[in-house]
Specification:
Layout (H helix, E strand, L loop, with lengths): L9 E4 L1 H4 L10 H6 L1 H7 L3 E4 L27 H13 L3 E6 L9 H8 L11 E2 L20 E4 L4 E4 L14 H17 L3 E4 L17 H18 L3 E4 L5 H5 L10 E3 L3 H11 L3 H8 L9 E5 L13 H11 L6 E2 L2 E2 L3 H4 L4 H13 L3 E5 L57 H6 L4 H14 L2 H4 L1 E4 L7 E7 L4 E7 L5 E5 L8 E4 L4 E2 L8 E5 L4 E7 L2
Parallel strand pairs: 1-2, 1-13, 2-3, 3-7, 7-8, 8-9, 9-10, 10-13
Antiparallel strand pairs: 4-6, 5-6, 11-12, 14-15, 15-16, 16-21, 17-20, 18-19, 18-21
Helix pairs in contact: 6-7, 9-10, 9-11, 13-15
This protein binds 1-deoxynojirimycin (NOJ).
Length: 541
């Protein structure tokens, strides 16, 4: 189906951190192949792989030095192909990364570019004799960068970079750059990847007197890439990583002729706010204020990913609140966000983890689950940058959490040994054995989500019970109506729902298939335990 991404449940993972098949201390494609059974049993149907290309790994692979190859630590192109084919055989799609705004400073293009003004790739990057241009562009990596310009003694000029100084921005005003990036897209699409996540989309072009974000030229290039994809490849998907306000973000759908999907960066922090404040309003506002996407487009929603929990798109007051509540220790903060995983953010409360996952899987959009969060993995914010949320997947209680047979000291990152989240307790094998584990709960809830496409495609309508600690919404399409009721509070709550228009229908609770009393003319009364939720199908009259 051409809009398959509306029914997708995405599982985001890092080859480097998932499973090491050869005892090198680093994950690889053969290791991922071994673990496809696990992923399939989890019930997700789409994998998003973080960058696995040759790279000095100073930004964990988002600093690419060769776009059309596999990092030797992770295997070969053949291994990648085998993995992709096997994922496809199992009915799973695979999304890879197109990091198109910048390269590593080790990329041959940049090495050539910096050599002399006559170099053939000189104009592939943005050079300047002064650092005074484009002053209205903000610095994104606030904790490490002081400017978007860095002096290069070899080139005798400054080069432009929106992220780390070792990641020079490509110059999209140069037609050769545009062609080269289309070639990269072609390379991976020819291999059969189902979608491309475009990293750092808003920053492709620079124009004096602007913020250098979301410029019309950037949209024009996205349309070009989309046309190229549609003409040659049919049902592939373009996914936007644009950390922007909803209206700017929505512009990336164009008129259905730019991105198919985009991450929803403003809903994410509001889910965390709502559960902390025990107040539904942040979620209701975020959803209601989301502009309507063209009918072929879809939001991708998420709780956590490989980056810090970004707070760029909230007000200063909201940011202060989030930091006070979720990042008490300064070390937990990075740039404007919080570098923690889901379970530690939620004080490892099973109820809260379930409630937030229920939102992830039932609010409008395609959910994206970050590897390890399905077992409640912990983090390690003593590691630098965002590495603390990218530690090895915890498979069992053996050495290195079953991730690798290497010498412990050889691991690309240490496994989590924090007493509360120690891999000996928090691991896949232990949770597979325990029917009541988070992993088994996640499988169940994902299974329910898969049974009801309305949760991916349907309309949303919020109900307005007087109790503001209760969030209630309907997900509907012409055939199905699902009622979701969520208690955001840590105490039991009553609520009365106006369901008169469904009078005569019977709510069926989806986990137990339990019939509840029929809906009548009076307010429908429910009680909810602390941090709990119901999903009901409203059975036909
Ligand atoms: C966005 C990625 O998600 C992040 O991890 C990376 O550091 C920046 N882009 C720069 O590539």
């Amino acid at each position: 189906m051409s809009d398959w991404y509306k029914d997708a449940i995405i599982y985001q993972l890092h080859v480097r951190a998932f499973r090491d098949s050869d005892g090198s201390g680093t994950g690889d494609f053969r290791g991922m192949l071994e673990k496809l059974d696990y992923i399939q049993e989890l019930g997700v149907n789409c994998l998003w792989l973080m960058p696995f290309y040759p790279s000095p790994l100073k930004d964990d692979g988002y600093d690419i030095s060769d776009y059309c190859a596999v990092h030797p630590d992770y295997g070969t192109l053949g291994d990648f192909q085998e993995f992709l084919n096997e994922a496809h055989r199992r009915g799973m799609r695979v999304i890879t990364e197109l990091v198109l705004n910048h390269t590593s400073d080790q990329h041959p293009w940049f090495r050539d570019s910096r050599q002399s003004p006559e170099s053939s790739c000189r104009d592939w990057y943005v050079w300047s004799t002064t650092h005074n241009r484009y002053r209205q562009a903000r610095v994104i990596f606030l904790d490490t960068e002081v400017s978007n310009w860095t002096w290069d003694p070899a080139a005798d000029a400054y080069y432009w970079h929106r992220f780390f100084s070792h990641q020079p921005d490509l110059n999209y005003d140069n037609p050769s750059v545009q062609e080269a990036i289309l070639d990269v897209a072609r390379f991976w699409l020819d291999r059969g990847v189902d979608g491309l996540r475009l990293d750092a989309v808003p920053y492709l072009f620079e124009r004096e007197g602007t913020s250098c974000e979301n410029l019309p030229e950037t949209h024009a290039f996205v349309r070009r890439l989309r046309r190229f994809m549609d003409e040659r490849y049919g049902d592939r998907m373009l996914l936007a990583e644009a950390n922007q306000r909803p209206e700017d973000l929505c512009a990336y759908f164009g008129e259905g002729d730019e991105f198919h999907a985009a991450f929803h960066f403003t809903l994410m922090p509001r889910m965390f706010m709502a559960i902390r404040r025990e107040d539904r309003q942040p979620i209701v506002d975020a959803v209601i204020q989301t502009p309507q996407a063209p009918s072929t487009c879809q939001w991708v929603i998420f709780l956590r990913n490989h980056d810090e929990l970004t707070l760029e798109m909230v007000t200063e007051e909201e940011r202060a609140y989030m930091q006070a509540e979720y990042a008490r220790e300064p070390r937990m903060r990075l740039h404007l966000g919080i570098r923690r995983r889901l379970a530690p953010l939620l004080d490892n409360s099973r109820r809260r983890i379930e409630v937030l996952n229920s939102l992830l899987l039932s609010l409008p959009g395609t959910p994206s689950i970050y590897y390890g969060d399905e077992i409640g993995m912990g983090d390690n914010f003593y590691l630098g940058d965002r590495l603390g949320v990218r530690t090895p997947m915890q498979w069992n209680s053996d050495r290195n959490a079953g991730f690798s047979s290497a010498n412990r000291q050889q691991l690309f990152l240490p496994v989590v040994v924090d007493p509360e989240f120690h891999y000996e307790a928090v691991n896949v094998e232990a949770q597979q054995r325990n029917p009541a584990s988070l992993l088994n709960w996640m499988r169940r809830v994902i299974g329910i989500r898969q049974r009801f496409p309305v949760l991916g495609r349907g309309a949303v309508e919020f109900l307005e019970p007087a109790n503001l600690k209760v969030l209630a919404y309907l997900r509907t399409d012409p055939e199905t109506t699902i009622l979701c009721v969520v208690n955001l509070s840590r105490y039991a709550q009553p609520c009365e729902l106006d369901l008169r228009r469904f009078s005569g229908r019977k709510p069926v609770e989806l986990f137990g298939n339990t019939m509840f009393p029929p809906i009548g003319e009076l307010p429908y009364f429910l009680t909810l335990g602390p941090h709990s939720f119901y999903w009901f199908r409203l059975s036909g009259p």
